[in-house]
Amino acid sequence: MSDVIEKILFYMEYPFVRYALVAGILIALCSSLLGVTLVLKRFSFIGDGLSHVAFGAMAVATVFKLANDTLLIMPITVIAAVLLLRTGQNTKLKGDAAIAMLSVGALAIGYLVLNLFSTSANITGDVCSTLFGSTSILTLTVKEVWLCVIMSVVVIAFYCLFYNRIFAVTFDENFTKAIGKNVTVYNLMIAIITAVIIVLAMNLVGSLLISALIIFPALSAMRMIANFKGVVIASTIISVMCTLIGMIVSIVFSTPVGSTIVAADIVVFFLCCIIGRICGGNTA
Q: Known SUPFAM superfamilies for this protein (predicted)?
């Protein structure tokens, strides 16, 4: 045990490890806040759709050798979120179908672009790193960390300022409309903020595992707690805790970062299910 602690303290001396932990905790915090709303609105898989769009945008940015690919990925993912929300309201094309089309289409195009216009000798390695977040979180620059901090502050400020509106839109859109509030605007804002979180989370868990970062903490909290505010707080604690544990385990034992974090989320989910049943919590 002492050897593990010494190893952790040794790695903490490196700036890139500290950057990774700061970015990881902030991303986990933001993901858990909106994750509860997305789960309750039955819109959990928006993470999959938008993450695959972000992967496609990343592929294009890589081909054009952009110095800061986030400048391209962020706007494209936000636009996709807006289109996804609009398309989901179309009676001829339901939300789940729109997400499926967007998810598969963007993933296929991104991989096709990377193969046709290869700029690296290790395409498979680059794709796997992007999809599963194996090492990218440990190569963050100071600018990327500051971008993560700024965007996280924006997300948290938005959630705190519009908490009552988010609560109303989550549970009863018709009532919210009845009291004169513009539901479409709030749904649009939630979609845009979700897109921002998706782009930030790509470096942490990769494109394929982002949904787990959004869904698992919320579902774990719901196993034990029945009120909205309690679920949000518990989800935030669980998300940050699992991310911190997952990243430390990954650094110490050289396991893939994204997969290790999700594995920690899965373990905590089952523990919460057991605790919820024993204590008679919310098991819905």
A: ABC transporter involved in vitamin B12 uptake, BtuC
Q: Rounded to a whole number, what is the distance in angstroms from the first to the last CA of the chain?
A: 39
How crowded is the C-beta side of 87, counted as CA atoms within 13 Å?
A: 17
Q: Vertex 203, ends 202 and 206: CA angle to 5°?
A: 50
Asked whether residue 284 is domain-assigned, the answer is no
Mind listing the pLDDT tens digit for each residue in 167-215? 888 888 777 788 777 888 888 888 888 888 888 777 667 666 777 888 8
CB 34 within 8 A of CB 214: yes
Distance (Å, whole) CA 265 – CA 260 = 9
Domain count, the chain: 1
Q: How far apart are CA 176 and CA 31, in angstroms?
A: 24
3-state SS assignment for residue 180: coil
What span, in angstroms and rounded, lies between the C-alpha atoms of 89 and 85?
7
CB 209 within 8 A of CB 258: yes
Sequence-separated (6 or more) residues with CB below 8 Å from residue 125: none
**Nearest CA among 86, 85, 55 for reference residue 73:** 55
Domain enclosing residue 243, as ranges: 2-279
Cβ atoms of 30 and 152 closer than 8 Å: yes
Q: Which domain CATH number covers 95?
A: 1.10.3470.10
70-116, pLDDT tens digit by residue? 667 788 888 888 877 666 555 455 556 767 777 778 778 877 877 77
